[in-house]
What does this fold into?
Amino acid sequence: MPNITIEGPQIKDVEIKRTLVKEVTEAAVKAYKLPAQYIVAVIKENSPENVGVGGQLICDRKAK
It folds into this structure.
């Protein structure tokens, strides 16, 4: 059973999340040749204060 994790910033619009999960699932169905019922997609949302890039928190980079 493929498990796909989508990690990124928060998506506030649930319709966008539905579309994202649907499209990722469809791509996995095509790649793995499995029914959609076997594909698990998880959205993990990260706040800017919890992610660092280049040794700096994203929330600090936006402030500049």
